[in-house]
Amino acid sequence: MDAKYVSLCRDWFLDYANRFQSLDPGVEKNIVLKIGHTYRVCDNAYRIAKSVGMGRDDLALAEVLALFHDIGRFEQLKVFGSFDDRITVDHAKLGLKVLNSSGVFCDLARSERRRLCRAIWLHNKYEIPETERSDTVLFSRLIRDADKLDILGVINEHFATRDLHPNSALDFGMKDEPGFSREAVSEILQGKMVRIPVLKTMNDMRLMYLSWAFDIYFPVTLSCIEERGYLTRLMSNLPDDPEIFKVRNFVEEYLAGRKHIYI
Ligand SMILES: [Fe+2]
Question: How much is the pTM?
Answer without folding.
Answer: 0.93
